[in-house]
Amino acid sequence: MTGIGFKIIKARSLRIAVLFLIAAMFGGCASGLNGRYYNQLRDKIDSGEFQAAADLVQNSKRKYGQRNILLFHLDSGFTNHLAENFQISFRNFENAKLSFEEFFQRSISAGAASMFFNDSTMPYSGTNFERTHMLVFAALNHILSGDDMAAAVEARQANRLFLTFAVDGDFYSDDGFIRYFMGLVYENAGFLNDAHVSYFRALRAYRGGVVNIAPPQDLINDAYTTALRLRMSARAAEIKAEFPSARDNRLNSPNGELIVICYNGFVPRKISRVFEFALFDIWPYINQVEVDDEGEAAEFERARSVTIAAFASDFVRVAFPQYQRIPNNIVSFSVDTNVRTEVSYMAQDLAQLAERYLDDQILKIRAKALARAAVRYVLGRTTSKAVADATGHEAWGFLTRTLFNIFTAVIENADTRAWNIIPENILMARLQLPEGQNAVTLNFLDRNGRRLRVEDMTVDIKSGRKNFIFVRVRS
């Protein structure tokens, strides 16, 4: 056997050894913020084990790591919100606010690393709609703790964020639901003028917003009523002309208003859409696959990709994120009381918002992924030629190129991080009830009006006020 033949055999043996080494790494390192962790967290939330969900997040802090510390604060804040640990939730959201700012700056400097590895190497800096909806949950923490003034501070922060988004020319520069909800917050705290401005802007944001939802009738009534109370006759007439259904919805003493906010389902999860091209001695290999990082299927997909890369002469892989909806049959609910029955409406569609937000970003994400693939490919070819020239043997150059192929198969993944446990949509129902204790039945309905779940509760209504409660459902 010639020396060259021996080198080729040695190179192939090393290639197989590296393949098994990486397979072993896959088997031992499948942990962290993968689909199985979030499935476990969603299951606890679905079953109403909110304290257990909050404990799971807290006990999993090491899984998040410093790059995902924002997600830790968001997940902990929301699960503690659901568990009615309002002060803990508030502290987590305050930490999240700091992380949003800190990681936005750090993500700029981390961009160079992401051009060679993947976007997951950058700190997760969140999305603008995650920032604004966090303020909704934070404001509810304050309201349900009896601090309406602190809730109004969250409303003012939301307004400042929208001003910043508009100046930056962001796709998501306003949101009808956020304006609507913060109007309720302002009104409850006694800031009637701020409430009217927020309601009026909400009407415009719903009509021309990112999410296709018509302005709710309750919002139309709020904008009209606050204009009347402020003696803004011209504004009231303007609203009435545009929305003839507008009516004065002032409370009848000694009634209060019950506002039921329903966190329905889960926002879609991000998965990877992967495109692979491999060139063998006599034929090419082209593949497109959707990869969900859950369980054995994901392990098998990664092993398959590494195997193809290990035995190809050339290998290119690019991956982009896409959303996958989580099934949920509940579309509305009714509130039954001794006084009346009220049917809910959709106030926010977070599933649609998340998908449209990604659609707005996807061209930049794809361009970056393709540029990253080109950098790796050119570097692999250049390095393998340099090794072959330096050693005088093509076998070592071929082995170097193989290692680059395997590295590409392992490292190229879409950034699928997101605030995975917020609702698919937010449903609302509002009605006047007498002061004091009121028995309430919530009936959760599917598209055909069939009752899927029932929840009985007693609510304490304070006269002349908006009385908020929230529920969380999925079926």
Features:
single chain, 475 residues, alpha+beta, 4-stranded mixed sheet, 4-stranded antiparallel sheet, elongated
Descriptive report:
This protein has 475 residues and is an alpha+beta fold. 55% of the residues lie in helices and 19% in strands. It is built from 16 helices and 11 strands. Strand 9 (436-445) and strand 10 (451-461) form a beta hairpin. Helix 1 (3-28) runs parallel beside helix 16 (394-411), helix 5 (69-82) packs parallel to helix 8 (128-144) and helix 10 (176-188) packs antiparallel against helix 11. It starts with a helix and ends with a strand. The relative contact order is 0.13. Mean pLDDT is 88; it is low at 1-31.
Short overview:
It is built from 16 helices and eleven strands. The chain is an alpha+beta fold and 475 residues long.
Major β-sheet annotation? 4 strands, mixed
The total count of helices amounts to 16
Strand content: 15-25%
**Average residue pLDDT:** 88
Secondary-structure blueprint:
Blueprint: H1 3-28, H2 35-46, H3 50-59, H4 61-64, H5 69-82, H6 86-109, H7 111-114, H8 128-144, H9 148-167, H10 176-188, H11 192-207, H12 217-229, H13 233-242, E1 256-264, E2 269-279, E3 284-291, H14 295-310, E4 314-324, E5 332-336, E6 341-343, E7 345-349, H15 350-391, H16 394-411, E8 425-433, E9 436-445, E10 451-461, E11 466-473
Parallel strand pairs: 1-11
Antiparallel strand pairs: 1-8, 2-3, 2-4, 5-6, 5-9, 7-8, 9-10
Helix pairs in contact: 1-14, 1-16, 2-3, 3-5, 5-6, 5-8, 6-8, 8-9, 8-10, 9-10, 10-11, 11-12, 12-13, 14-16, 15-16
